[in-house]
Amino acid sequence: MSDFSLPDEVLKAARKGLSYELYRALLLNYGKRGEKAFFYLKERRVKKYKDFFVVVGTNEYVVEGNFCTCMDFQFNLKARSPCAHIIAVRLARIMKLYDYYDIYYTDFMSSRS
Ligand SMILES: [Zn+2]
Q1: How many whole angstroms from 63 Cα to the centroid of ligand 1?
Q2: Exposed site from 30, 89, 95, 96, fewest CB < 10 Å?
């Protein structure tokens, strides 16, 4: 199983922040999924809870390591390459571009239903 490590080009661009260079590197390496990942970072849609990282898109997607709960990852990509959410979380961790909530996502979810 792949560890989905980000290409050097992307990592290098990420050090410069949310630049055009990063956008371009993501687009070249991941196409539309890369573009989406950039958007998630820019809109600060990555949230860190005590138990999981969550990306707020059409729905909320839980990302844990090399796994994401979205349909794209599980059906289109068949868990073989990273979806936009996994890419966004990887970069958010490196760039510290996420909001942190000192609660468990699982508790938060059950409190809302
Ligand atoms: Zn996903």
Answers
A1: 7
A2: 96
Residue 2 has pLDDT above 90, yes or no: no
Question: What does the pLDDT look like over 30-67, one tens digit per residue?
Answer: 999 999 999 999 999 999 999 999 999 989 999 998 99
**pTM for the structure as a whole:** 0.94
- β-strands 60-64, 46-48: how paired? unpaired
Give 68 Cα–ligand 1 centroid separation in angstroms: 5
| CA 113 to ligand 1 centroid distance, Å | 22
Amino acid making up residue 44:
R
| Residue 11 vs residues 37, 62, 81, 94, 103: alpha-carbon distances, Å | 14, 23, 17, 9, 29
Contact 90, 11 (CB under 8 A): no
Between the CA of 28 and the centroid of ligand 1 the distance, in Å, is 19
CA of 45 from ligand 1 middle (Å) equals: 13
Residue 66 CA, ligand 1 centroid: distance in Å:
10
